[in-house]
Amino acid sequence: MGIASTYQSLDNELTHESFSGYALTLVGGYRLYRYIAIEYRYTHSILDLKYSSGNTTNQDDNSYDATFTNSAIYLKPNYCYNIYCAYLLVGYGEVSLDDVRGSRRSEVGAQWGAGASVGFMDSWSLFIDYIDLYRSKGFDGRAKNANVNAKVVNIGANYAF
């Protein structure tokens, strides 16, 4: 089980609009075999998001009242050498952006990422990883002709028992 400080972003490649901010990620998992684990992660923004209008006529907003969340389950193949580990995350989840103009936008699909960790004091480890949450055209009916990318970077700690 673990916890991470997260930087998250959702970007529209056509208009260059973006939502970004900081979040908290909770991690729970189970090691199935020496080189593979299963992991559930829930990410929730903890402050207002920053909205950048890109090349639209909208106004930028550094305190945009919206919530960015992700809930996903991952298969986590890993390789460790001494106290150092490298891993991949391949999973399925839902990424959502709530309260944008009073609505909820979400997409469900495949997610992938990679990371590294270093162990200390037998049961503890520090980790850093990148996860691509969503990458496709449109986002729940919005930005239909644009590539939309959602991603997170996590820095955290895990405790194994």
Structure description:
This protein is an all-beta fold and 161 residues long. The protein has one domain: Porin (Beta Barrel), CATH 2.40.160.20. It is 0% helix and 80% strand. It has strands spanning 2-12, 18-33, 36-45, 49-52, 61-64, 67-81, 84-100, 103-120, 124-139, 142-159. The chain has an 8-stranded antiparallel beta barrel with strand order 1-2-3-6-7-8-9-10. It is elongated, with a radius of gyration of 17 Å. The model has no long low-confidence stretch (mean pLDDT 93).
- How many separate helices? 0
Biggest sheet character: 8 strands, antiparallel, barrel
Specify Rg, calculated over alpha carbons.
Answer: 17 Å
How do the helices and strands follow one another from N- to C-terminus? EEEEEEEEEE
Helix content: under 10%
Q: From the helix content, strand content and strand pairing, which structural class follows? A: mainly beta
Strand content: over 45%
Q: Report strand order across the widest sheet.
A: 1-2-3-6-7-8-9-10
| The number of domains | 1
Instruction: Say what the CATH topology is.
Output: Porin
Layout of secondary structure:
Blueprint: E1 2-12, E2 18-33, E3 36-45, E4 49-52, E5 61-64, E6 67-81, E7 84-100, E8 103-120, E9 124-139, E10 142-159
Antiparallel strand pairs: 1-2, 1-10, 2-3, 2-4, 3-6, 4-5, 6-7, 7-8, 8-9, 9-10
